[in-house]
Design a protein that fits this description.
The protein is α/β, with parallel strands linked by helices. It is built from 21 helices and 15 strands. A hairpin with a 2-residue loop joins strand 10 and strand 11. The protein is globular, with a radius of gyration of 25 Å.
């Protein structure tokens, strides 16, 4: 069992807690913007049409009292588009089956898709495919936001490809059409395994009456062109014809019920008792000033079952903590940073990843990393080839990876610890998280040194006052472009979470992972020895 040295009365603990609470308040403000939809006026107009809001539809679709893990709720934060990418998606339980559930928020520009909507939707379909989750789309969309068509048209076409790929893989897809599903949006019900339409509500057509008039001169009636009853009786697009929204939701629940869907993974096999140490203390442990280190074991002691952790190679490569534990009864291997990565840490991590693959155990990567060590001594000692071993192991590992970014994520350390580019099944961040090529001060300093050297080579004097101003400007820019909210807005993670919720968020992610098989790699690429 992991012990603790945390003193909740210490100055660093109190300072971190206060700073993290401030960051969580900003997070709550951003999440509130996403949940507000298009604003009070648009919400009331939607309700005035007798329609439920997207989150209300999801709540009715899910089993009562079951958990809901929302994914990428802050997509588009900091952009000109609505926070959340005008869509809602996540993992929830329907008739006892974990499903990927998502849909457009029709109160935001009629549910029209923008670049963030597209990226978010594709990420959802990737999660459904990798984890073998039935995918349910609550469809009501005006199609593409035509103002950003150049950023949508090409990548958006991948949506239909991925829907059919799910079907080919035997993963069911279901579309419930709550309103208009126009242009490209019409292909969502068209390419789903099951389609539920609602009388006098669902409208599915490639071209609505205005476009038909422009293209052919025909004066088309909406109902005859793409109404629910027409598609149910004439075109064959509709598989089920519901009386109203509630009937459509009941129908979708019945469809999931008859899928006879079961998990392929081994599931939880260990005691799922609560940690001995209080998760509330994570707010005081996680440093907001990322130059201040903290012991990752203190984090593990507050998220692992019973605070139990069997550490592997504890005396070797001590800046990387590796070992075995469990979360909500699911066995996991853990790699957690306690500082910069040297050659010993890289070799230790690569070996441990291979062991997890031999045992077919999922891996949790806990990132708080400034990168691999640099300098003449370390370059001559082989830091590049040793770091490559770790990246090779991460790249070719086949057990599911979950990544938690609980501090810094800089340089190649992001790659060696299963950053987004290395396709972890799920990736979540804490509000204190920062991600960049390097820290703001280091990056500004490097640019300053390069500029000074260039001036000397040209035989020109160097303006120190201007240099200081440029360094400050660069630091400010990198700080703004590397914080947790900005990163989540770019879609670089699956959500910013309250540190106190980490255990439950990761537990839900592991449960979803076990819907598919959990098996390790049988081989790796060439390791440079």
């Amino acid at each position: 069992m992991l012990g603790t040295r945390v003193d909740p009365t210490s100055e660093p603990f109190v300072r971190n807690r206060e700073a993290n609470l401030e960051l969580l308040a900003k997070l709550d403000e951003a999440l509130a913007q996403a949940r507000a939809g298009g604003g009070p006026e648009k919400v009331e107009r939607h309700r005035g049409r007798g329609k439920l809001l997207i989150r209300e539809r999801i709540a009715l679709l899910l089993d009562r009292g079951s958990p809901w893990l929302e994914l990428q709720p802050l997509a588009g934060w900091g952009s000109d588009f609505h926070v959340g990418g005008s869509t809602v998606q996540g993992i929830g339980v329907i008739n006892g089956v974990e499903c990927l559930v998502g849909g457009a928020d029709a109160t935001v520009k009629g549910g029209a898709m923008n670049p963030h909507s597209v990226r978010k939707g594709l990420r959802g379909l990737q999660i459904a495919r990798e984890n073998r989750l039935p995918a349910i789309n609550l469809t009501e969309s005006a199609g593409a936001d035509l103002r950003s068509q150049k950023d949508i048209f090409v990548p958006g076409g991948r949506t239909f490809h991925d829907l059919t790929a799910l079907s080919k893989a035997g993963i069911p897809t279901i579309s419930i059409v709550f309103g208009s599903s126009t242009a490209g949006g019409a292909y969502v019900p068209g390419m789903s395994d099951y389609t539920v339409l609602i009388k006098e509500r669902s409208k599915v057509f490639l071209g609505g009456p205005p476009l038909v008039k422009m293209a052919t001169g025909e004066d088309a009636d909406e109902e005859e062109l793409g109404g629910a009853e027409m598609h149910a009786r004439t075109s064959g697009l509709g598989d089920y014809l519901a009386d109203d929204e509630l009937d459509a939701i009941r129908t979708a629940r019945r469809i999931v019920g008859h899928l006879d869907w079961s998990k392929l993974g081994p599931g939880p096999s260990l005691p799922a008792d609560d940690p001995v140490h209080d998760p509330e203390e994570l707010l005081g442990i996680a440093s907001v000033d990322l130059r201040e280190p903290f012991d990752s074991r203190e984090v593990l002691g507050r998220i692992l079952d019973g605070s139990r952790f069997e550490e592997f190679k504890a005396a070797y490569g001590t800046n990387l903590v590796t070992g075995w534990g469990s979360l909500h009864g699911f066995p996991i291997g853990v790699l957690a940073n306690n500082g910069v990565l040297f050659s010993q840490e890289a070799e230790k991590g690569a070996q441990f990843i291979q062991l997890c693959n031999q045992a077919s155990v999922p891996i949790l990567f806990c990132q708080n990393i400034t990168g691999f060590m640099v300098g003449t001594r370390y370059e001559q000692g082989g830091i590049i080839k040793d770091g490559a071993k770790l990246i090779n192991a991460v790249s070719n590992s086949e057990v599911p990876h979950l990544t938690l970014m609980m501090g810094a994520s800089y340089g190649a350390g992001n790659y060696g610890m299963a950053g987004r580019a290395y396709d972890p099944r799920f990736l979540f961040t804490w509000p204190n998280h920062h991600i960049a090529v390097m820290g703001p001060q280091q990056l500004a300093g490097v640019l300053s040194i390069v500029a000074r050297s260039a001036a000397e080579n040209r035989g020109e004097p160097y303006d120190d006052e201007q240099d200081q101003a440029i360094r400050q400007m660069v630091e400010t820019q990198i700080e703004a472009e590397s914080n947790a909210l900005f990163a989540s807005g770019q879609g670089w993670d699956d959500g910013v979470i309250d540190p106190r919720d980490t255990r439950h968020v990761l537990g839900m992610a592991l449960s979803a992972v076990h819907t598919n098989e959990v098996a390790g790699a049988s081989g790796y690429g060439v390791f440079r020895m």
